[in-house]
Amino acid sequence: MSFLLPFAEHWLQGVFTDVSRYVIFAVGVWLALWGVLAAPLAGRKIREGRPPARQLLIEFATSIRSIMIFSTVGLLSFGLFRAGLMHGPYIAREWGPAWFWTSLALMIVGHDAWFYWTHRLIHDRRLFRVFHRRHHRSNSPSPFTAYSFDLGEAAINALFVPLWMLLVPTQWPVAGLFMLHQIVRNTLGHSGYELFPATRDGRPLLPWMTTVTHHDLHHAQAGWNYGLYFTWWDRMMGTENPRYLERFAQAVRRQGREAEIKAVEAA
Fold this sequence. Notes:
By secondary structure, the chain is mostly helical. It has one domain. It is built from 11 helices and no strands. The chain has helices spanning 5-36, 53-82, 88-94, 96-122, 125-131, 133-136, 151-167, 172-189, 212-220, 232-237, 244-266. α1 (5-36) runs antiparallel to α2 and α2 runs parallel beside α7. The radius of gyration is 20 Å and the shape is globular.
């Protein structure tokens, strides 16, 4: 039993950390955008109406379940590290601070590729019902949708970190920062409000990054926009929704029109 104790402690610590991140950002983004800032950001709201309360409760519960799966799969890297079979964290520490930040950037890029291709895979009709249907039941997503996965999809997403840590020298704090970045982008990407900056002509100011509209369109029309952080895989593979830029422009210009109307009324 003493052999299992460190694994149980690591699992519980992982669950506590990830649940804390999820609750802070999912609840925080919901309260900020759908509560405090709902009026000033009304022009940036992508869809009319609100997701029903029942959907939010189901998303929250399934996200907690997903986090438990993340921590369970994470025991693979913990076990390998304790057994002396994973030397990457030691190597990465010797490579210094430049590699610390480089490895974080590479991990984010690598995860985007992992997500794009596994995401496309589980959209295959033979796999969709088992692996991905739960997530798409949130047709109108909310910040709570972030980890609302079927069991199989949660396991696929969880496998990335152990595989990366095994193959690429990476410090443990880098993995922690990666997870922080991942939940921030995930909750914002499901927030229902277009938060990304635009050019004067209504195009994304950072065209290589996925916007909220980009992923919201995936929930509305599932055959497009598989990317998580970046748009380049969708563009290279021809899977970007052909109406994406039009829909993004509609979302950002709506706020501009409403601001003009208010200015005229105030005058």
